[in-house]
Amino acid sequence: MNTTNQQRIEEHRILSEPFYLAQGNEVELALAAAREQLPLLLKGPTGCGKTRFMRYIAWRLGRPLITVSCHDDLSTSDLIGRYLVKGMEAMWLDGPLTLAVRHGAICYLDEIVEARKDTTVVIHPLADDRRELPVEKLGMIYAAPPEFMLAVSYNPGYQSVLKDLKPSTRQRFVSLSFTYPQPALESRIVMTEGQIEETLAARLVRLAGMTRSLKESGLAEGASTRLLIQAAQLLRQGLDIRSACRAGIIDSLTDDPELLEAMEEMVQSIF
Amino acid sequence: MDLDAQKQAFYELVSPSRPNDWEVEEVMELLAGIPADYRRALLAHVPTIWPISHSLCFSFLGEGVKGASRCPPELLSEWVRQILSRYEESGLRAARDFMGDIDTNFLQPLHGNAGVAVDAIRGAMVPYLRGVSGLALDLAADGQGRLWTDTRTIFVPGRQRLFAERVDNLLFLRFTVILQWGYIAGGSFRRQPDGRDFAALAARYGTGAGEGAIDAYLSCFPDPARAGQLLLLFELPRVFDLIRRELPGLVRAVQPLCQRLLAEDQGRCGRRGDQVHDLLRSILLPPDPPPPVGDHRLQGDGESGALSRFPDFYDRLADGRAGADHVLTLLVGEPDFIAARKRIEQTRAEDREQFISRLAGVLEQTRAQGPAGEKGPGGAGRADSIVLTAQGGDRHGEQEEAPGLSLLAEIELPPDLAAVRQRIEADLGEVPASYIQAAAGMAGQGRNLASGPETDGQIVPPAASFVYDEWDYRRAGYRKDWCVLVEKELPAVMTDFVPLTLHKYRGLKTRVRRQFEMLRTAHRFVKRRRYGDDIDFDAMVDALGDRQAGFAPSDRLFIRLVRDHRDIAALFLVDMSNSTEGWVGRMIKEALVLLCEVMEVSGDRYGIYGFSGMRRSRCELFHVKHLHEVYGEEVRQRIGAIGPREYTRMGPPIRHLTRMLQGTDARLRLLITLSDGKPEDYDGYVDVYAIEDTRKALVEARGAGIHSFCITVDQTAQDYLAHMYGRGNYIFVNKIENLPRRMTEFYRLLTS
Ligand SMILES: Nc1ncnc2c1ncn2[C@@H]1O[C@H](COP(=O)(O)OP(=O)(O)O)[C@@H](O)[C@H]1O
Ligand SMILES: [Mg+2]
User: Fold this and answer.
1) How far apart, in whole angstroms, are the C-alpha atoms of residue B567 and residue B557?
2) Cβ distance B662 to B454 under 8 Å?
């Protein structure tokens, strides 16, 4: 059983350096938090680099990274683990959280507010200074080793902030707010990830910037870095700029005809 | 033609009023000069116009005489209709301007649709402008057809029809709007001439060596208006470069149009060597390859000395008046530097006040939450926070070493405050330390800050009253805490209104109830139930494992197909203004009764509120049914008690219900407004202002994740509806007797 778990954890090890360009001092902060054994709270709009950041941090720390995308069907067993029957024998299988605790890995709960409250209670004793995980069915309380790290993320844009995170829990976390990277940085990211030339990347970034100032006009969220990379990939496949932007970026943002028209015009003006 | 008889006939037309003799005489003399048929046709409209405005009527006759050779008599009625609507919208002056140019304002739009009406394209152009500029700029049609900006709103001719093709007109309009933004962003309206600049003018034109802002400087020129326009030309190379860099696609597309305008212009004035013309050509249509960026040609050298070369520029070009001025005006417009300066100063003052009071509120709140705050270090989010140092000096004070990870004196700014901060930084370079000190002082004194929406709840306003901002489109900003909304109870009245209505609609009710029952039957699997239709395999595996391991296995082993709990919260907001008096009001009430009856079977949570009021200080919201209230006799009685009251200020109740819905955890949150026409209130909440505020309130709701829809009851579909509610977000009911059916149908479609 140990060997399977050992194998499983190895799958989560990040072997080569992920491409990550720091926005500010977030890397230092996260490393400091790791040294102090404090959990991380990443907040920011979707597609601005939170997941990539965690991969990078895991690589820097040389620890495995176990990511759980939260959704409202997620159960406690999904996080902690469950018994399976093999032959006539019951066999315990660690859930991602337990796995991470036992092996000193990083557990990253992506979009935590998507999970139900009764599911997320299990992280409380891990987040405060007890740093332990009770596993009822095993009759065990695992103490997290210093290498274990908990990280959660949420998008303040479309969830009423803090609604599902108890203040007492929240205050245990070191918060890192992510915004979209500065234009020059974002251009480099799009250029590298999308493998397109620099001026084109810069223009995509400029387009994103324009869509991001449309909040007042009713666009809840502007184009994310991820969408830009997606458009870049379409471009690389030989699509023309208008179709790539339309399919890769604009249409994903809204159905409102006036906003669509405004963004189409932006594309026309920029390229 | 006998003038006296004619006059007599006129007096009869306008009796019993008795207009001034010589005024009548003057018009009659004019009328004498046109064919009798046409004269009769014109006079036929006098009884319509005279009661509305005497002056308008005289102007109408005067302009009508001038237009006699061009406007066929059968079009006169349409012309009058448009004149009157112009008059009602914007007053006498606008109506006169409209009449003044019958060709451009009336005949051409009537005959060709190639023109672009600003009102029709605002919906897409404003987001475009805001996206491109990153500024909260607005767009409006200028009454006199001028192009200019006060730095917050860009005013453009109400109609653009220079070209035969609509796309070209739209493109050129877009370009001129962007040029205005270029001047705003490039700082043309913020130039600060120094003492030497003024002295140079004094030496040249003998004006007193003055001081002041750019408008004062321009006023020292012999022809200030011309100087203003030439200053924009002077700066055009720089601004055009900026635009070409940012929006190369736009420039590429518009260049052929500029080429055409310049060519036509040359054809018209027929002389070469016009300096303005040549200059425009060299800037807009540079030879290939384009000169390197930064070649500013005629422009001064660098920021500071920039104005030193302007007087020469002016002297060289001011006299060549003829010719290319036309194109210059089309491109850069007729700037109003005074209006711009006033607007800049006003914005600066408003921002200062808003920033200080909001920041003080935030500081207060942070302090109330304890010294540690709730925030960790700001990480990458520097844009949203500000470091408070004792002196308020440098923005990034020495940060403590990370290990303690203790609180940096960083405060996270709510988005609206961050936006103000950005504006201030754009304006002044950085937030002056004095602002921050003032805010800290204010917070320290624990003064009550009636500022941001977040603080409202805490300042204990009089019972059940709420303060809301209102959107002022003219300055593209909110008027803070502008409206007070009071929640009120309707007096319960005993009436047989409900039973009668139910009897009337018994057939419809049964049918609709059945449809609404169907709504509930959206199916969904729920797992880990004690009983159900199928085995939950995951749970089964867990249980088997548990049992094998010696635990009592869970008995939640089934999957159940449930009629989905729809988890919808809907609020209905009902117009109770006096215009709903009578038939309309009655049908609205009947529709509500039917709605309640069928909503009960849908299982959705719903609430109903009425609204009316007068002036911004008294917006009233009447409780009919709260979201969680049971539909019973009292609710019925309150529906019966709904009746016409005062005005229709739609913004505050929409904002209020938005806030209510934000407090619910329903998956789908709906706000459905039922009204009978335009929003309007007594204190200037009319027309565009009211429409824009209502639109804004709905946009805010959408931004808060609330789906808002409107049902409008009116004779004819007005064209502002799509703009105000957003296309696809409203229905229009003109056969009022259909309202009960349409309304329930609408709700059903919305939620299924
Ligand atoms: N700072 C960054 N450095 C490198 N790549 C980045 C960065 N920020 C965003 N990206 C790119 O954007 C994509 C989306 O980011 P992701 O981490 O998935 O966003 P999030 O988790 O915030 O939704 C990544 O796959 C990566 O390609
Ligand atoms: Mg992610």
Assistant:
1) 25
2) no
**pLDDT digits over A60-78, tens only?**
999 999 999 998 778 888 8
Count of alpha carbons within 13 angstroms of residue B517, beta-carbon side = 6
Cα B68 versus chain centre, distance: 39
Q: How large is the angle between the packed helices B506-519 and B497-504, nearest 10 degrees?
A: 80
The ipTM of this complex is 0.80
Smallest-distance ligand from the CA of A110:
2
Residue B248: cis peptide before it, omega within 30 degrees of 0: no
The answer to whether the beta carbons of residues B711 and B565 sit under 8 Å apart is: no
- A225 C-beta closer than 6 A to ligand 1: yes
Interface contact flag, B246 A77, Cβ < 8 Å: no
Tell which one of A225, A227, A229, A252 to mutate to probe ligand 1, the residue whose CB is within 8 A of the most ligand atoms. Answer: A225
Give the pairing of strands A65-69 and A106-110.
parallel
Question: Which residue's CA is minimally distant from atom 15 of ligand 1?
Answer: A49
Which residue in the set B376, B544, B703 is minimally distant from A215, CB to CB?
A: B703
Question: Which has more confidence, B257 or B37?
Answer: B257
The first and second tokens of residue A159, run together, are: 């969830």
- Residues from chain A that touch B528, judged by Cβ atoms under 8 A, are 75
Domains and CATH numbers, chain B: 3-110 (no CATH), 118-340 (no CATH), 348-459 (no CATH), 497-517+566-610+623-751 (3.40.50.410), 533-563 (no CATH)
* pLDDT one-digit tens code per residue, B505-554: 888 888 888 777 766 655 667 788 887 777 888 888 888 888 888 888 88
Residue whose C-alpha is closest to residue B709's, from B725, B691, B732: B725
Beta strands A89-94; A140-143: pairing state:
unpaired
Residues sharing a CB contact under 8 Å with residue B156, sequence separation 6 or more, in sequence order: B118, B139, B140, B141, B142, B147, B173, B176, B177
Cα pseudo-dihedral B626, B631, B636, B639, rounded to 10: 30
Q: Compute the C-alpha angle B221/B225/B230, nearest 5°.
A: 80
Phi and psi at B497, nearest 5°, equal -55, -45
Residue B546, chain A, CB below 8 Å: the answer is yes
What is the Cα–Cα distance from B410 to B389, expressed in whole angstroms? 9
Q: Please give the Cα distance from A83 to A101 (Å, whole number).
A: 18
Contact B402 A28 (CB under 8 A): yes
Contact (CB<8Å) A160/B378: no
Which of B202-216, B399-413, B419-433, B438-452 is the least confident region? Answer: B399-413
Radius of gyration of chain A (CA): 21
Lowest mean pLDDT among A129-138, A175-184, B321-330: B321-330
B344/B214 Cα distance (integer angstroms): 12
Backbone angles phi, psi at B441, to 5 degrees: -60, -45
Domain A2-177 in CATH 3.40.50.300? The answer is yes
Q: Give me the residue spans of the domains in chain A.
A: 2-177, 183-270
Contacts of B448 (CB under 8 A, 6+ apart): B459
Q: How far apart are CA A161 and CA B7, in angstroms?
A: 75
Of A161, A37, A167, A39, give the one whose Cα is nearest residue B370.
Answer: A167
C-alpha to C-alpha distance for A170 and A115, rounded to whole angstroms: 16
Does B493 reach chain A within 8 Å, measured CB to CB?
no
> What stretch of H or E contains B481?
strand B477-489
Q: Which amino acid would we find at residue A96? A: P
Q: Report the distance separating Cα B113 and Cα B171, nearest Å.
A: 15
Contact A181, A48 (CB under 8 A): yes
- Interchain proximity A85–B544, CB inside 8 Å: yes
Strand partners for B472: B477
Residue nearest to atom 13 of ligand 1 (CA): A226
